[in-house]
Amino acid sequence: MTRSDLVEELAARFAQLTHRDAELAVKTVLDAMSDALAKGHRIEIRGFGSFSINRRPPRIGRNPRSGESVQIPEKRVPHFKPGKALREAVDASAAGQTAPAAKPKA
Questions:
Q1: In a domain, 106, yes or no
Q2: 47: which of 43, 53, 85, 98 fits an S-S bond (Cβ 3.0–4.6 Å)?
Q3: pLDDT (tens digit, 9 = 90+) per residue, 43-77?
């Protein structure tokens, strides 16, 4: 699913939203998530999953063309961990079953 597919789905599901409003809503949510991750915050969406930042330490790599050693600097990369409900829904659809209904917490 692409960003434009998500906008189309949102506009189709909610008749009171125009295409432009749906596009603005999707852009706002994704921008807020990007900003939070850039600041080093963790994002958790219950039933879907969580986004966090992982640190990749500096290391020595090799240039595949020349074979010489190259210093690769430290990187911070986004990481997604799916939630239990998402994992079960994907697993059920892969097995050809319908996704089980989520159990309410007591």
A1: no
A2: 85
A3: 999 999 999 999 999 999 999 999 999 999 999 99
For the chain, the domain total comes to 1
CATH number of the domain bearing residue 86? 4.10.520.10
Amino acid at 89: A
Residue type, 103: K
Task: Name the token pair of 28.
Answer: 């706002």
Tokens 């090799």 appear where?
A: 62
Provide the 8-state DSSP code for 39: T
Please count the other Cβ atoms lying within 10 Å of the Cβ belonging to residue 89.
19
Whether pTM exceeds 0.90: no
DSSP state of 47: T
Rounded Cα distance, 53 and 30, in Å:
16
